[in-house]
Amino acid sequence: MSVYRVIDVIGTSASSWEEAAAEAIGTASGSLHDLRVAEVTKQDVVVGEDGTLLYRTRIQLSFKYQPE
């Protein structure tokens, strides 16, 4: 039997939502182990004053719970 935790993470990218999602997962994998499922829950774009775009992807990320 296994237990999983779910957290929200947000990744950002100057080029795409997919890259923002990959950034969020890649960064989270540095401190979380046994990642299982990533579900995109929200995507948006921030428009800077100079017209630049910042893509943001919010992900619910599940990983296997390891008691301390």
UniProtKB/TrEMBL annotation:
Pfam families: Dodecin. It comes from the Bacteria. InterPro entries: Dodecin (IPR009923), Dodecin-like (IPR025543), Dodecin-like_sf (IPR036694). This is Calcium dodecin. The lineage of its organism: Bacteria, Bacillati, Actinomycetota, Actinomycetes, Micrococcales. The gene is secE2.
